Structure formats: structure tokens, C-alpha cells
């Protein structure tokens, strides 16, 4: 799954000559936490709601909201924007985008085309939504089974063959390594209540430990 398939296309952008007040109002209007700053089609920075709060008067100020607005409308975005922008390519995978966000402790990334143009934005919410869909959570009628197995060649093929021989379709399968010797397999099966105990018994007979089961 690629970033281009999950990003928000044609993101709202503003120029570095905009005032902080203008950007602040645009972010509040659209419920954004960050704004991409573009000059002449080129990415030059970004501004977050935290940056705005950093230069805005304290809530304890005696200034009226109109005076605060006038003050922010006198400050330029280019004076406080973050110029070092972490980005991701549109052809990158969702996993790469998630890793970049995690490593850089950011909640969103401008998405750049091969020619350097801003073509979208992908956020932590998009990553979470993708994870939920990969796990098959929006659709009901599934059994989620977690197995603890040895981390060795052939285990996955063996387990999937047991399930296939029972005539049940695997909806999704996630591998979670717990340590170098043990691995947890999270398997979501199509509705199979009448056959599940048979599948579980066969897996136990082959030495695979089912440690958790839930029916969605």
C-alpha cells in the first residue's frame, strides 16, 4: 500500500508572505494542526498551531481579541515558519511514511512528487485508518485468532494450509515478533464458528499455541 493511495490530495497551502493571522484563521476554519507553506510551487516550510501559539499573546493578556488579531496580522509567516520540512515521496509505502513520522516525532508529512511538487499530505490519522482497515476491523463476522509460534521457516505455510484445508478463507494476517525465538501471528478468518474448534484442535496438534480468540 502506497502513500499516494492514502494521502489527501491537493492540500490547502499558503505563501510565506501570508500573515500569521491569515494562516491561523485558515487552520481553524479547516480544523488543521499544520499548514504547508509554498512559494511559486516550491515547498519552503510549514507552520503548526504550536508555532502560532508561541508568538500569540498569553491568554492572560489584557488585549482584546481584535487587538490580538491585529497583532497577528502584522507578523509574517516567513519569520516564524519551520524551514526544515520532513517530507515523503508519493511512491513511498505507508510503512515508510509511518516510520518517518515516528522517527521525526511529527504528526503529518507533505507528500512530494518526483519533480518536487507538493501533491498531498499524509497524517497520523491516515496511518491509523489504514491500520484499522488492514486489520479488517470495519467489517464484522470475523474471528481474530492470535497464535504464538517459533520463529522458523515454514511455520506460516503450515498454519495457512491447516486453515485452507478446512475450507476457510484468511481475511488478513499480521506478524508481530515478540523476540528472536517467538513470533505472534494475528489471523483474521471469515465467519467460521462451526469449524473453528476443528481448526484450533489441528493447530494445537501441530504444536501451535492459540493464545487469544475474539469474535467480531
Q: Could you give the topology of this structure?
A:
Blueprint: H1 3-6, E1 8-9, E2 13-14, H2 20-30, E3 34-39, E4 42-48, H3 49-55, H4 65-72, H5 77-80, E5 88-89, H6 94-104, E6 108-112, E7 118-123, H7 124-134, E8 142-150, H8 155-165, E9 170-177, E10 182-190, H9 196-205, E11 209-215
Parallel strand pairs: 2-3, 5-6
Antiparallel strand pairs: 1-7, 3-4, 6-7, 8-10, 8-11, 9-10
Explain the overall architecture.
The protein has 216 residues and is α+β, with helices and mostly antiparallel strands. The chain is built from 9 helices and 11 strands. The strands form 3 sheets. The chain has a 4-stranded mixed sheet with strand order 1-7-6-5.
Shape: elongated
How would a crystallographer describe the biggest sheet?
4 strands, mixed
Characterize the quaternary organization of these chains.
single chain
Measured between the Cα atoms of the first and last residue, the distance is 25 Å
Compute the number of helices.
Answer: 9
**What fraction, in percent, of the residue positions are helical?**
25-40%
Main sheet: strand order: 1-7-6-5
Question: Strand-and-helix sequence, N→C?
Answer: HEEHEEHHHEHEEHEHEEHE
- Residue ranges: pLDDT <50 for 5 or more in a row? none
Instruction: Kindly state the number of beta strands.
Output: 11
Overall mean confidence score, pLDDT: 87
Integer-rounded radius of gyration? 25 Å
Strand percentage lies at 25-35%
Class from helix and strand fractions: alpha+beta
Amino acid at each position: 500500500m502506497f502513500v499516494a493511495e492514502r494521502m489527501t490530495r491537493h492540500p490547502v497551502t499558503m505563501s510565506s508572505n501570508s500573515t500569521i493571522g491569515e494562516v491561523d484563521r485558515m487552520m481553524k476554519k479547516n480544523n488543521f494542526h499544520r499548514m504547508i507553506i509554498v512559494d511559486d510551487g516550491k515547498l519552503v516550510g510549514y507552520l503548526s498551531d504550536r508555532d502560532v501559539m508561541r508568538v500569540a499573546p498569553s491568554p492572560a493578556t489584557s488585549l482584546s481579541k481584535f487587538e490580538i488579531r491585529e497583532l497577528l496580522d502584522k507578523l509574517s509567516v516567513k519569520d516564524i515558519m519551520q524551514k526544515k520540512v520532513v517530507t515523503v515521496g508519493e511512491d513511498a509505502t505507508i510503512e515508510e511514511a509511518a516510520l518517518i513520522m515516528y522517527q521525526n516525532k511529527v504528526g503529518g508529512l507533505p507528500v512530494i512528487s518526483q519533480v518536487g511538487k507538493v501533491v498531498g499530505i499524509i497524517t497520523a490519522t491516515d496511518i491509523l485508518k489504514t491500520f484499522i482497515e488492514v486489520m479488517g476491523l470495519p467489517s464484522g463476522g470475523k474471528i481474530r485468532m492470535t497464535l504464538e509460534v517459533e520463529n522458523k521457516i515454514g511455520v506460516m505455510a503450515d498454519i495457512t494450509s491447516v486453515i485452507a484445508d478446512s475450507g476457510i478463507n484468511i481475511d488478513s494476517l499480521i506478524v508481530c515478533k515478540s523476540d528472536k525465538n517467538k513470533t505472534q501471528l494475528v489471523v483474521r478468518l471469515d465467519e467460521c464458528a462451526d469449524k473453528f474448534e476443528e481448526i484450533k484442535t489441528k493447530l494445537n496438534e501441530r504444536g501451535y499455541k492459540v493464545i487469544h480468540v475474539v469474535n467480531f
